[in-house]
Amino acid sequence: MPFFYGTAMDGLEASFGTFDGSDLREVQAPRSCFKGASLSQARLSQSNFSQACFTSAFLPQTEWRQVVASGVSFSTAQLDHSDFLESILLGANLSQAQGHSVNFVGVDLTGAVLRQAVLDWSDMTQAIAVQADFRHASLFEVSLEAANLMRANFQGADLRRANFEGAQLDGACFDHCRVSGALFTGSTGLTLAQRNVLRKGGAII
């Protein structure tokens, strides 16, 4: 089990490497590249992975609590049951990422791209996802309670049974979404026209 706790790895090239179960807590690894690498059950909390690349990486059950990772790429990565509690993922690329039951509670996803991501049953309670791109994402039964989703784009997303209770939705786009069973009670910022369309789609307003 590799041990890298607290080390500096700025610009490290580790594509397609195997780091399963590694201790990568509190490392400084901006601009590092773990493309296609396997980090199953690795611990990476309180580290700096800004501008790092985890494209197509295998990352189930990884721990990323309070990570700083602005501009990171998790495009097409496997993220099942990973934990990003209170991390900073400004402008992150999670397009086509696959991750059931991921913990995004309190995460800053401002400007992040989650287009066509599959994040069913994940928890985004109190997340900040201002201007985030969720187009055609699958967010079945995802919790977005009390999240800041101002100007977020959910066009074409699967939001069935998602929970938007208390969310800020000013300027958000819900065109052509699947919303059967989605809960919007207590949310703010929806226009009257949006409320009517969502109700017709089976959402609870």
In DSSP terms, counting alpha (H) and pi (I) runs of 4 or more, how many helices? 1
- How far the N terminus sits from the C terminus, by CA atoms, comes to 49 Å
Strand/helix succession: H
Q: What is the strand tally?
A: 0
Chain-averaged pLDDT = 98
Largest sheet: none
User: How large is the share of residues in beta strands?
Assistant: under 5%
What structural class results from the helix and strand content? little secondary structure
Specify Rg, calculated over alpha carbons. Answer: 17 Å
Low-confidence stretches: none
Helix content: under 10%
- Using the alpha-carbon principal axes, give the shape: elongated
How do the strands and helices of this protein lay out in sequence?
Blueprint: H1 192-200
Task: Tell me about this structure.
With 205 residues, the chain is mostly loops. 4% of the residues lie in helices and 0% in strands. It has one helix and no strands. It has one helix spanning 192-200. The radius of gyration is 17 Å and the shape is elongated. The relative contact order is 0.09. The mean pLDDT is 98.
